[in-house]
């Protein structure tokens, strides 16, 4: 099989942005609050941390250079351990769609991975640490992009090692399968196409029954249900951008009436009513923040 980029179409439509907020020593206990729409990527460069990230006070110790990835809002506490100082680099992550970002939904609350496990990551982090250690123009922007590269390398590792962290059925486990990945890729790239179980099975080079069974086992749902969820995710994004309902429907392979029916089944209200609720919430958030529209 020819290689495909399993993440490209997902990240093209649902991006992720990093913004560094701590670079250097961690000298005292620090609590990272769960804030809606925000995740974290911490890079432990040196030292040892005790980490509480289960909400029950239980502690674990991370004592080798590692990535600590929190894809969704999740309160956690870091405490430096006695000994050589803790050197930590931290970035907040903003995923398009927040907790509904397709990759976020497929991930556990926390992923902890030694840097040495991720092939090629050390070279990227060498560039990151070079920028951290020497203040130069554009430093923050370069550091943010390098955090994003580190995250992409981590996601790539997860795709290649789905069993090592015990990931539940979902998008990542589906993309980890070379046959299913091809079917998922075409759904992601061309969501408006009238895909059928037969056409997707052919792309996956599998029989219809084997494809359906394998898809449900690894992704956790039927192919048609997954495609519908993907289309509705894109619809929410496009409606939020202010696109007309008729345009959104046509771009996703629906008539206006069939789109309204499917959207209401998934979201509990029609596209127009949903859009109005989003506008009202955005206006309320603006008022609460004290900013001027």
Describe this structure in words.
With 293 residues, this protein is of the alpha+beta class. The chain is built from 12 helices and 9 strands. The strands form 2 sheets. A 5-stranded antiparallel sheet has the order 1-8-3-6-9, covered by helices on one side. Strands 2-7-4-5 form a 4-stranded antiparallel sheet, with no helix packed on it. A hairpin with a 7-residue loop joins strand 4 (49-52) and strand 5 (60-62). Helix 3 runs antiparallel to helix 4 (139-160) and helix 7 crosses helix 8. The longest helix has 22 residues, at 139-160. The protein is globular and about 65 Å long.
The beta-strand count equals 9
Spell the H/E element sequence: HEEEEEEEEHEHHHHHHHHHH
Count up the helices: 12
Given the helix and strand composition, which structural class is it? alpha+beta
**Main β sheet profile:** 5 strands, antiparallel
- The overall average pLDDT, rounded, is 91
What coarse outline follows from CA principal-axis ratios? globular
Strand arrangement, major sheet: 1-8-3-6-9
C-alpha Rg, in Å?
21 Å
β-strand percent reads 15-25%
| DSSP helix fraction | 40-55%
Q: N-to-C terminal Cα separation, in Å? A: 51 Å
């Amino acid at each position: 099989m020819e290689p495909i980029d399993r993440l490209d179409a997902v990240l093209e439509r649902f991006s992720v942005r990093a913004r560094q907020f701590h670079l250097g020593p961690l000298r005292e206990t620090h609590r990272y609050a769960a804030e809606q729409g925000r995740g974290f990527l911490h890079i432990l460069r040196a030292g040892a941390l005790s980490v509480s990230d289960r909400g029950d006070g239980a502690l674990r110790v991370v004592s080798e250079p590692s990535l600590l990835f929190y894809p969704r809002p999740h309160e956690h506490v870091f405490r430096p351990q006695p000994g050589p100082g803790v050197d930590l680099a931290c970035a907040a992550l903003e995923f398009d769609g927040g907790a509904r970002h397709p990759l976020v939904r497929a991930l556990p609350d926390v992923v902890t991975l030694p840097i040495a496990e991720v092939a090629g990551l050390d070279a990227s982090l060498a560039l990151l640490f070079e920028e951290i250690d020497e203040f130069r123009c554009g430093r923050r922007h370069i550091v943010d992009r390098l955090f994003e590269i580190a995250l992409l390398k981590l996601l790539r590792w997860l795709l290649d090692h789905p069993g090592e962290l015990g990931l539940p059925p979902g998008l990542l486990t589906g993309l980890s399968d070379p046959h299913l990945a091809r079917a998922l890729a075409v759904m992601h790239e061309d969501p408006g196409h009238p895909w059928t179980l037969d056409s997707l099975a052919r792309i996956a080079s599998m029989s219809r029954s084997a494809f359906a069974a394998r898809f449900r086992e690894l992704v956790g749902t039927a192919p048609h249900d997954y495609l519908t969820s993907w289309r509705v995710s894109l619809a929410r994004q496009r409606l939020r951008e202010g696109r007309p309902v008729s345009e959104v429907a046509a771009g996703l392979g629906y008539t206006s009436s069939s789109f309204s029916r499917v959207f209401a089944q998934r979201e509990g209200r029609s596209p127009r009513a949903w859009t109005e609720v989003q506008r009202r919430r955005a206006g309320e958030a603006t008022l609460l923040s004290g900013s001027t529209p």
